[in-house]
Amino acid sequence: MDSGSPLRGIRNDTVVISSIALLADPCGAVYWPEHGVLVVSDLHLEKGSSFARRGMLLPPYDTAATLARLTKLVAHYAPRMVIALGDSFHDGGGPSRLAVDDRNSIVALQRGRDWVWITGNHDPEPADGIGGEFRHTVTIGALTFRHLPTGAAGEIAGHLHPVAKISQRGRSVRRRCFVADQTRMVMPAFGEYTGGLNIRDAAFADLFGTLAFTAHMLGPDRLYAFAAKRCLGD
Hints:
- The chain contains five helices and 17 strands.
- Strands 1, 9, 10, 11, 12, 13, 14, 15, 16 and 17 form a ten-stranded mixed β-sheet that branches.
C-alpha cells in the first residue's frame, strides 16, 4: 500500500456478485471480462448547465470532464458493450444542451460497440440524437443492470451515489464507494458534479437487510474494502 495513502483497508479490486467476478475500477466503473461489458452509473451530464438555467452558476465543464474520464476507461478496456446505469443526463433537456465537442465525444465512444442507456429518474425518457439503445433493465446471465436498486439477487444498480467515511491516523476520509454483498451491488456515481449518500444512511440498511455489506472505497489507483459497520456516519 502507498505509504502516503490515508486508507489502510484491504485492497480489493475484484468484487464477486452472484458467483461472478467483476473488476471494480478505482475510477468508479465495473468491467465484466467474460462478456466485455463496461458499466458506469449516474453520469449526470449537463448538470452544470441545468443549474445555470436556474441561476446557480457552476463551471460549465462537468460534461467534458466526465466524458474525458470515460474515454480513458473505454480506451483501456476496449469493451464490446457499455451500459450507463441511468441518470446519464441531469435532466430531460440535457441531450439538447450538449456542446458540439461533447456530442462528438459520445459518438466516438459508441463507435464499434454496443451502447445501452438505462433510463433513470432524472432522464426517464429516451433522448434523440445521442445514439445507443434505451432500456429499463439489461439482464446478462445471472446479473441484471438497472438504475433504481430493488435488492434483488444478481442486481447491479445505481441511483444512491454511495460514499463511505472512515477514521484513520487521526483524520477522517470520505470517498465514493461501491457497496456490495455476495449477491448485489450499488455503484458509485461517475459524474463530475455528483454528490453522495453516506452508506450508514437507512436507505442502505433497508436495501441490504443488515449492515453485513462492504464498502469498497475508491483510492487513487486501487480500492479499499471496509465493513459497513466500521464506517462512520456524517
